[in-house]
Amino acid sequence: MLCNHVVTTMAQKFTLIYWGGIPGRGEYIRLAFEYTKTPYKEVNDPTKVISHFSPKGQHLAPPILDVDGSFTLSQTPAVLAYLAPKLGLSGSGDVEQAKVNQLTLTALDLSNEAHDVHHPIASSLYYEDQKAESLRRAEDFRRTRIPKFLAHFETILSTNGNGVLVGSKVSTADLTIFHVLDGLTFAFPKRMATLRNEGLYKTAFAFKDRLGQELEGYLNSGRRQKFSQGLFRHYPELDAD
Fold it and tell me: Which residues contact 17 (CB under 8 A, 6 or more apart)?
């Protein structure tokens, strides 16, 4: 697994606009900056975040990326697709770039499904208001959805054979899948431990471990927000072997 370095030729100034206190969807963008050691700033003040929402602003929700104060961009996959070639995280050539985008979107699908386990009815409702539905959703998610995605990632990693998903360098797809697997380990520790111990996804779990080692400096820093009440939430009653 080869480390990337910043390849941006222009001294662009990046600001991530996102809620404070949680990794959330903003973490996928942070990881791109942190892995490539690209300088960036954050705006976490709720008032300033909301000021970018329509109708006063141009965005529906964060994360929002501000580039040089000249334009802003939202939607996690759109931001990652914009940043990837600038940060050397897009693969080599058009075909690899397309595959990186495909796998990034697949990983974000799993991220969204993980969120919908604890909020299966409506994001506007509290977990306690939809707990019965969450219990039903969690059972299927643990039994069928997590293994299905893990098997897919296992296939892609094994087929590529370079320790990464596409080509020979870490991409936004790798960083996104790393964070999803990390979040699932927090939210469903029993289930993820069982899946690891079964040995059917050795390549996927080894990939997560190696990339975690490369990111160790960031993961152990104060910049890394702890999992809590964001996308990935641990409710013991939703977890099982």
Answer: 42, 43, 48, 49, 52, 62, 63, 64, 65, 66, 72
Q: Which of 123, 142, 124, 111 is nearest to 235 (CA)?
A: 142
Per-residue pLDDT of the chain (241 residues; tens, 9 = 90+): 544 444 544 579 999 999 999 999 999 999 999 999 999 999 999 999 999 999 999 999 999 999 999 999 999 999 999 999 999 999 999 999 999 999 999 999 999 999 999 999 999 999 999 999 999 999 999 999 999 999 999 999 999 999 999 999 999 999 999 999 999 999 999 999 999 999 999 999 999 999 999 999 999 998 999 999 999 999 999 999 9
